[in-house]
Design a protein that fits this description.
Structural class of chain A: alpha/beta
CATH architecture of the largest domain in chain A: 3-Layer(aba) Sandwich
CATH topology of the largest domain in chain A: Isopropylmalate Dehydrogenase
Order of helices and strands of chain A: EHEHEHHEHEEEHEHEEHHHEEHH
Oligomer: homodimer
Number of domains of chain A: 2
CATH superfamily of the largest domain in chain A: Isopropylmalate Dehydrogenase
Radius of gyration of chain A: 20 Å
Largest sheet of chain A: 7 strands, mixed
Shape of chain A: globular
Number of strands of chain A: 12
Strand order of the largest sheet of chain A: 3-2-1-4-12-11-5
């Protein structure tokens, strides 16, 4: 049985959607057991089926907008998030899923789960929508503003194993986000990464990719430093949100616009769904001791159950042991830094 | 009379749309004269009104996909683009408008127009759509991958004068693109820019702006280095293009989707128009000796005439003399670099 630690309390619609999501996941996936961390009384209100779900009481909830994440994690070891994360090192769970405060989760993962031996910089990797419906792994959307090419090689390798084993891509292709497609484009970091990825040949590298291809890229994985990938992610989010607002405003301006929108409502909803991350799952934190998945703050039961499925897939397909083996074997090339 | 040099031959639909755009501009704007550079025979096919338009023959057209822009400009001083640009230094024109190959235009502007005295780094500044319909100036979408905070201060000041005099914003507000809104966020460059803009107080600075607000920002001007702003611009472009494709695919999937789209066609067209840059005009190259405007490669007559109007507004409102005066007066703060 794969054991998944689930923080029931973090999220815009917690704990209801998280608990329903956990019940849904257990129903759909036969080989999982869930440890559900949270307020006993609150959980009892929504948990209608205890099959393969164990409730573990937690006295505190780290609030969604937490501005001092490190302090919050350190001062609240009894929070649902901290308990769920701490269960990984203790061997009580194989993976953790949480839709709570992002920064607190990242801080907690580093403090309580810690890095995989030899892995230099963790990376946050959401899956963004793609025109082919399969999605693209984008990294690093975390906080590594300064990074070395060798660290990005580790991160890209992690993404390749994940894409192969969990997303079932035959030959995952890595692309480097850049301002032009030709070799030699971009900053010094980009040129070094281009050369390193080309020379190492440990995965298929398609070279530089411009972000005007962001929804239809020639690769499965798009990588850049933590500043750039975060800017790309938020620009996508802002453009999609803004365009949605524009479209709604235009359609509501005339009678025929409203009528047309009403007739096409089903299609407009599919469109919205295709642009949403709920279908694909949460963002993975690559490079930890064990898998931690950040489901969207606005997760509903269905999306949250997908993040649990994703966590189970990562464990079942031995993504972590496979990456750890590579990191061990190639370890010396990263020098003795840190 | 304001004299505008127009490259008739560059653009996806040149010279037809450029010539029609020039005639449209002359019709709408009373105080302009146009020098139209291009193939005499080709121009004669479309130029039906010579009122305030002088044709100046050019023997060569720099192709749209030109891969060696510097060589192209240097080897073809008789090209329509090079002749139009060279007319600025000679005092034959007050501003130049071109929808031809972007990289060649930037190279040509640096070689033939050159920088304003004391201005360290030129910046390319398109106007991107905004929810309020007024548009936001985004810079630098050029090639300054490495830049100093002082250079960005000059660029931001230029954008402020431009926003005030041409776009008629009362008190233009500058925002710094960043991965978080709090002071102290981002890379070393971002922190330095934040401090410099805050301390100098030569324009209103609203601090850091996240790109999830890209279509509805709390400012008139969004600035970053040439790598980042280019990534933001192309991510917007890619997301908008990709979403358009998603929407079209979804709407064409069912009978009601198609019917609804047909009924709302007028609204969908307004939506498309609101997201397009054609309404607002072309991208300015800030910091040259005289104004050069890059109209979109896919410009049609209307959009191209808007870029000509924009050029006339820049000249009429003395944007360049105003910036030059500031740069002269504040010159020594930029040190003796270069």
């Amino acid at each position: 049985m794969i054991k998944i630690a689930v923080d029931a309390m973090g999220g815009d619609f917690a704990p209801k959607e998280q608990i329903e999501g956990a019940m849904l996941a257990v129903k759909k996936i036969n080989d999982i057991e869930i440890n559900l961390y949270g307020d006993k009384v609150e959980i009892a209100k929504y948990l209608t089926n205890h099959n393969r779900i164990t409730v573990i009481p937690a006295n505190y909830v780290i609030p969604m907008g937490e501005t001092n994440p490190i302090k919050a994690i350190k001062e609240h070891p009894d929070s649902s998030m901290a308990l769920a994360l701490a269960s990984l090192r203790k061997g009580e769970s194989d993976a953790a899923v949480c839709s709570g405060a992002t920064q607190a989760l990242i801080a907690g993962a580093h403090i309580l789960v810690r890095r995989m031996a030899g892995f230099r910089r963790t990376a946050i990797a959401p899956i963004i929508p793609s025109f082919n419906g399969k999605g693209t792994i984008l990294l690093d959307c975390g906080a590594n503003l300064e990074i070395r090419p060798e660290h990005m090689l580790q991160q890209a390798f992690f993404a390749v194993v994940y894409a192969k084993e969990v997303l079932k891509r035959d030959n995952p292709i890595v692309g480097l986000i850049n301002i032009g497609t030709e070799a030699g484009k971009g900053r010094e970091l980009d040129k070094q990464v281009y050369d390193l990825f080309t020379n190492k040949k440990i995965f298929t590298f398609c070279g530089n990719v411009e972000t005007k291809e962001i929804l239809d890229p020639p690769c499965d994985i798009l990588i850049s430093d933590g500043y750039t990938a975060d800017i790309v992610m938020k620009t996508m989010e802002g453009t999609a949100k803004g365009m949605g607002k524009f479209l709604k405003r235009e359609l509501s301006r005339t009678f025929f616009g409203k009528l047309g929108a009403l007739m096409a409502q089903k299609n407009l909803n599919s469109f919205k769904k295709a642009m949403s991350a709920e279908e694909i799952g949460g963002a993975m934190i690559f490079g930890l001791y064990a898998p931690v998945i950040k489901a969207q703050g606005a997760s509903k039961a269905y999306g949250f159950s997908n993040a649990i499925r994703q966590a189970a897939d990562v464990v079942r397909n031995e993504v972590y042991p496979k990456v750890a083996k590579y990191v061990q074997e190639s370890g010396d090339q990263f020098g003795n830094e840190e």
